Automatic annotation (TrEMBL):
Listed EC numbers: 7.6.2.8
Function: Required for corrinoid utilization. Probably part of the ABC transporter complex BtuCDF involved in cobalamin (vitamin B12) import. Probably responsible for energy coupling to the transport system.
Organism of origin: Halovenus salina
InterPro entries: AAA+_ATPase, ABC_transporter-like_ATP-bd, ABC_transporter-like_CS, P-loop_NTPase
Lineage start: Archaea, Methanobacteriati, Methanobacteriota, Stenosarchaea group, Halobacteria
Protein's name in the database: Cobalamin import ATP-binding protein BtuD
Catalytic activity field: an R-cob(III)alamin(out) + ATP + H2O = an R-cob(III)alamin(in) + ADP + phosphate + H(+)
Alphabetically ordered keywords of this record: ATP-binding, Nucleotide-binding, Translocase, Transport
Amino acid sequence: MIRVDGVARTFGDVSVLDDIDLRVDPGEFVAVVGPNGAGKTTLLRTINGLLDPDEGEVALDGDRLSDLSSRAVSRRLATVPQDTHVGFSFRAEEIIEMGRTPHRSRLDWSDDGEPVEAALERTETTHLRDRRVDDLSGGERQRVLLARALAQEPDALLLDEPTASLDINHQIRVLNLVADLVEEGRAALAAIHDLDLAARFCDRLVLLYDGTIAARGRPETVLRDSRLADAFDTETAVTHNPVTGTPTVAALSERPDRDSHVHVAGGGKPGVAAVRSLWRAGFEVTVGPVPTGDAAGELCQQLGIEVTTAPAFQRPDDALEEAVANARKADTVVVTDGPGSQFVAEATETSAQVRTDARKSVAARVDGGQVDDSGVALVTAVLDQIGDGSDSSHLGKNTLHK
Ligand SMILES: Nc1ncnc2c1ncn2[C@@H]1O[C@H](COP(=O)(O)OP(=O)(O)OP(=O)(O)O)[C@@H](O)[C@H]1O
């Protein structure tokens, strides 16, 4: 088990890690995620003893790292580094045999070779055993270093970007292998840039940002945490991969900042198209009511947009009241011909308050409620409606679909 207690580390006067607490139990695969320079490698190097923390301590199976010899640490913990350059022209098999060093006594260098054979097999590198490591591709070298870590027969694994040089097939194979090793009772901590892979294979994510752990927990929770956008300095949308069923994250390009609020009435395909284009164009958007489980409602949840929902085929009294309140606050209301829109249309058409308060009335009935794929016509109509024609002229597919 890996335990990190109150670890701090500075380089010069720059604090890279500050009061980090972390625990990885046997049978757990944890990913450290975070932007470039967040301190992921520094954290891993502090855990394997290559760097001393300025404050705090690291323990392996309850023993303080500072009390263990480097051989003792290497018997418990193996590292697959980010930089796979070895520096000497060894054969792959010789590199993997180095993983046995912590287990050999100084006098007896005999070894049954079984762990090396097993490591070659599990990492599918047997065919590379006689090749010189500096002739191998980056991905092949990365698998050889994973094999060296396995030959070490550790209880815990540290992996720094283990899939960085791997093709999509080997990414999955290597992470499946790590997941299998974890299921056999090891603990694994990996710095992983690819949030989708981290979410798919790891039990927990730890978001490292600004020297501290900004969020931690199950992948779905961390990836939906608002601090993810701060950490990566970009808005993100989290959806579910229909094949793996695990979260997938899209970084979104910067939205223009428009100080206008649009309420969208109606879900389904027209609602999705309207929400997507208005959101991308930078409006504050509210939506509703839409039927429970509606695609527009799901999109809103992924984008963090306020949406009111109600069971289909029922008059959505409470949801309608809320939606009309949002429509009343909005600068304009877009009524699409998606499900649920008729209620707001009725309410806004009969509500003098909505008509007068929101500059309001029902604003954009673009193409009879249909929204074209690019959304340009809709966004232009909304800008015209609220008297903000300033930059509608350059709105094009690219602006809206980045
Ligand atoms: N030996 C060092 N001397 C000075 N600064 C260092 C040293 N090692 C790391 N740093 C700095 O510490 C910060 C964290 O680096 P680190 O490599 O841990 O980040 P990372 O999260 O692994 O980044 P990446 O995702 O780019 O691999 C960076 O600003 C880096 O420049």
